[in-house]
Design goal:
- The complex is a heterodimer of chains A (146) and B (765).
- By secondary structure, chain A is mostly helical.
- By secondary structure, chain B is α+β, with helices and mostly antiparallel strands.
- Chain B has four domains: 86 residues, Penicillin-binding protein 1b fold, CATH 3.30.2060; 204 residues, Penicillin binding protein transpeptidase fold (Orthogonal Bundle), CATH 1.10.3810; 281 residues, DD-peptidase/beta-lactamase superfamily (Beta-lactamase); 65 residues, no CATH class.
- Chain B is built from 25 helices and 30 strands.
- In chain B, a hairpin with an 8-residue loop joins β5 and β6.
- In chain B, α5 crosses α7, α9 packs across α10 and α17 packs across α20.
- The chains are: A mainly alpha (146), B alpha+beta (765).
- At the A-B interface, α1, α5, α6 and α8 of A face β25 and α25 of B.
Chain lengths: 146, 765
């Protein structure tokens, strides 16, 4: 009787385990990056700054108010007006400090400014957020390699 | 013949001399006219502003603090806002008629709140708006030696009604004369002859400008002649618009302490707390009315005179058909509507000003600051600043009631900063915060007492293969020779506590355990940690520094604690955000800078121990849910003989440090808890910080441990506490006495269950 009970518990446990393990991270699928192309994408992110920037500017903020500021900051970043872009990003940062999109831009802006250590620190700080997607996580990791 | 020649020669000579003299006088006046009008008149002191408040969807915000800020900005609370500068606030919504600032247009906006967060912002048409901006408060300026203060207006910024009022009242013939109006002079001359004294002036606007620029106010023939020459020269060199604009920018309106208020732009700020474009006709009439006698018609000192004079100006406007009868009737019955004098234009918050000035001196010279009209946007939050000032002032009064007049001279300092981006939100440098003088926030270098202990413990926790929160420390009697003397530290309670877990030694602030820990990890490691925290000073190599003989200013101490509160990310503290020129272009900025100095996991362990200070240590008293929602943590500090009382604590997004003590370093009856913590508490209670988000670190897990031996325990065991560990460093053994009460399921994250939980978490994203 005891053996049966243990067998049933083990069986349920193994089932739960296998179901849970088969859950895929939420946003890799959203991005629809084919698995065999994924490593190439990562390589490209590291090697091609323009591609990296394009990908970062695609990341939207979680709230419309922050997004509105990010649009303005992105525009200034593209025009190489780094001081003004930073000023806008800091405005957004005062509204929320929990948005991965912001840390990505701050890390990228500092990278463009040649402040590599700061860029890495912003990326590290972004990685502490609990509510960021795996794609954002991956992009932030790119700056840790600088 | 000889005689005639001599007479002729003399007359000729005298004529030539007079001509040369007159030419020289005219040349001198001409030089002064052009130099002054091209130079000094257009020099404007740099203005220092608070941060402009931005309201955005999703922003966490304390509604009471918003109301206080609106009051400070002289927004009027009404039931139906229908003109700029009014608002209506109900439980969960705000309707505000914004005055407009920079790119923020004036208009009515509705803001909805939900649990201390802005849920929605919409304009008058009901269309959603993401962001609205309130104007900042002017908190002071960098004044030149002559202390003239002005807000320079350009021609397009001058309201038509101001031009109409000035011309109607002061010089109706302005566009038709050449600086001097013989008609006006003869009319005034006849009047004065009849009266037997100088009763009436016939001065044109150009003459008034000449007078205010170059000459004293005495009524003499010589001055009148000089004034007339200067007026003609001004008319010769400048257009009518330029003259009128110079007059509008330069005319003297009031004296405020040592500061002279010049021009209508500054006048609007000084008396109404807003820019000239926002003034109504009656307010402009009041300012123009003051020209006749700035002191006699000063609305703050002589409101009756000022009202009568304003109404006379309105009457003149009505007679000249500039305003209609009904408008005149309603305007003359309006109150003066002045702003509160303290809130708008005076230089205040002296300790904060010191920080701003120190920062500016690195990049700007004094001359530039005093003359080029820079707009310095700072990080000061005026509501937080006022609250901090009130807290230190009121706490001192409470302490005097409790401990008597021995605390009459008690001094202090307090600083509040945004943990993450290092923005300085408020600073006081004295228990009389509004007085200028010795700024203790940067200049009082004092022993920091137990405030040093978290630095020592962090040094140990950073060596996470050797130390964790339950590592057993030795709090037994210690005696050693230091500098040729025997050093025997004791605890505040004069007891020895034997072997105790590290986290308890920290929140109980045991001196001997801390000294032994410091000695064990060594001066070099500690010095390295100090550097990482942002402390620039060399670490003195004597053991008493481990328990607080180390000296720092409040500013230096809070900088170090910022690195801890921000999870190991060092950010230099900033009082200034950015500096703009007179055209609103960014001239200089002080960007958010960051450097990861310490791994976040050891810092998380330290912050846990600092949170225990609130739950069961020297800062106890707050409900647990409050402590958790604020992610609060702190540390008290008391130096030898209670000469210094310190408290540093973080709550929400704010880190606040307080120091109390005497300037002459004599002992106080205060500990960190009974002194500085009371200021902190009064401040935090007044501002009630909003909740802060807590980052979760995947490498941290919580395990039930025993509070005496630090070994594994269970939720149901006595003296057990859920303690964080860096994975793999948690204690592994459960003493046999606790095997029954310790249930494996009590361990929040362990073994297979932990893996299962992680898999589910990943699945949920």
């Amino acid at each position: 009787m005891r053996f049966t009970r243990i067998t049933i518990i083990v069986f349920i446990f193994i089932n739960i385990w296998s179901c849970a393990s088969s859950q895929s991270p939420r946003d890799i699928s959203n991005y629809s990056v084919p698995v065999d192309n994924f490593s190439k994408t990562v390589e490209l992110l590291v090697a091609n700054e323009e591609f990296l920037e394009e990908e970062i500017l695609k990341i939207n903020a979680q709230s419309p108010s922050v997004q509105r500021i990010l649009i303005s900051a992105d525009d200034l970043l593209i025009k190489q007006k780094f001081l003004q872009a930073n000023s806008e990003l800091e405005r957004a940062y005062r509204i929320t400090k929990q948005d991965g999109a912001l840390y990505l831009r701050l890390a990228h802006l500092r990278y463009k400014q040649g402040l590599l250590q700061e860029s890495e620190s912003f990326a590290s700080k972004g990685l502490l957020l609990s509510d960021i997607s795996s794609w954002e996580r991956l992009l932030l990791n790119v700056y840790l390699k600088n | 013949m000889k005689f005639k020649l001599t007479i002729g020669f003399l007359i000729g000579s005298i004529s030539i001399i007079i001509l040369i003299f007159l030419s020289a006088v005219v040349a001198v006046i001409d030089y002064r006219v052009t130099a002054k009008l091209d130079g000094v008149l257009w020099t404007i002191p740099a203005k220092v502003y608070s941060r402009p408040m931005e309201l955005a969807e999703g922003l966490k915000l304390n509604q009471d603090n918003l109301t206080r800020e609106l009051e400070m900005l002289s927004y009027e609370r009404v039931s139906n806002p229908d003109r700029p500068g009014q608002f209506y606030l109900s439980n969960n919504s705000l309707r505000i008629f914004l005055r407009g600032y920079q790119d923020q247009r004036s208009g009515i906006f509705d803001v909805e709140f939900e649990q201390s967060q802005i849920k929605k912002i919409s304009n008058q048409l009901g269309i959603a708006e993401d962001l609205i901006k309130l104007e900042p408060i002017v908190i002071g300026g960098m004044y030149p030696a002559h202390m003239e203060d002005r807000v320079l207006l350009n021609w397009p910024e001058v309201p038509q009604i101001l031009i109409d009022t000035i011309l109607t009242v002061e010089d109706q013939n302005f566009f038709n004369h050449y600086g001097v109006s013989p008609k006006s002079i003869s009319r005034a001359f006849l009047k004065n002859i009849q009266a037997g004294e100088v009763e009436q002036g016939g001065s044109t606007i150009t003459q008034q400008l000449a007078k205010s620029l170059f000459f004293s106010s005495e009524q003499t023939i010589r001055r009148k002649v000089m004034e007339a020459i200067a007026s003609l020269l001004i008319e010769y060199h400048y257009s009518k618009e330029e003259i009128l604009l110079a007059y509008i920018n330069d005319v003297f309106l009031a004296q405020s302490g040592k500061r002279a208020i010049h021009g209508f732009g500054m006048g609007a700020q000084h008396f109404f707390g807003t820019s000239i474009k926002n003034l109504s006709t009656d307010q402009i009439a009041m300012l123009v009315g003051m020209l006749k006698g700035p002191s006699m018609y000063n609305p703050r000192r002589n409101p009756i005179n000022a009202t009568a004079r304003r109404n006379l100006v309105l009457k003149v406007l009505n007679r000249s058909n500039k305003i209609d009868d009904s408008n005149f009737e309603s305007l003359k019955n309006k109150p003066l509507g002045l702003s509160a004098p303290n809130y708008k234009t005076e230089t205040r918050y002296p300790a904060f000003h010191d920080l701003v000035r120190l920062e500016l001196q690195k990049n700007f010279d004094e001359e530039e600051l005093r003359t080029t009209g820079l707009a310095i946007e700072t990080n000061i939050d005026p509501v937080l600043q006022e609250s901090l000032e009130n807290s230190i002032r009121e706490t001192k009064e409470q302490l005097i009631k409790k401990y008597g007049t021995q605390l009459n001279d008690l001094e202090g300092s307090a600083i509040a900063v945004d943990i993450t981006n290092g923005e300085i939100k408020s600073v006081v440098g004295s228990t009389s915060p509004s007085s200028f003088g010795f700024n203790r926030s940067i200049n009082a270098i004092r022993p920091i007492g137990s405030l040093v202990k978290p630095f020592i413990y962090l040094t140990a926790l950073d060596k996470y293969n050797e130390y964790n929160l339950t590592t057993i420390l030795d709090d037994s009697e210690l005696s050693l020779v230091s500098g040729g003397k025997v050093w025997e530290p004791d605890n505040f309670d004069k007891k020895f506590h034997g072997e105790i877990p590290l986290h308890i030694a920290l929140w109980q602030s045991y001196n001997i355990a801390s000294a032994r820990l410091g000695l064990k990890i060594g001066f070099e490691s500690v010095e390295k940690m100090f550097l990482n925290l942002g402390i620039q000073k060399a670490v003195p190599k004597y053991p008493s520094m481990f328990i607080g003989s180390f000296e720092l200013s409040p500013y230096e101490a809070i900088q170090a604690y910022q690195t801890i509160a921000a999870d190991g990310f060092y950010t230099p503290l900033r009082s200034i955000r950015q500096i703009k020129d007179t055209k609103g272009q960014l001239e200089f900025s002080y960007p958010y800078s960051i450097e990861q100095r310490i791994r976040p996991e050891p810092v998380a362990l330290l912050k846990f121990a600092m949170q225990q200070t609130f739950i069961r240590g020297t800062a106890r008293g707050y409900p647990l849910d409050k402590i958790e929602s604020w992610n609060a943590g702190g540390k008290t500090g008391t130096s030898d003989d209670q000469r210094d009382s310190w408290f540093v604590g973080f709550a929400g997004e704010l880190l606040v440090l307080v120091w109390l003590g005497f300037d002459d370093n004599r002992p106080t009856p205060l500990t960190g808890r009974t002194g500085a913590f009371q200021v902190w508490k009064n401040y935090i209670n007044a501002i009630n910080p909003v909740k802060s988000n807590k980052n979760t670190l995947p490498r941290i897990e919580y395990v039930w441990t025993d509070m005496r031996d630090g070994l594994l325990s269970g939720k149901k065991c006595k003296n057990s506490l859920l303690v964080p560990f860096i994975k793999g460093t948690e204690p592994k053994t459960i003493p046999s006495v606790r095997r029954k009460c310790a249930n494996k399921l009590d361990r929040a994250n362990s073994g297979a269950l932990d893996k299962l939980r992680k898999v589910f978490e990943r699945g949920q994203g």
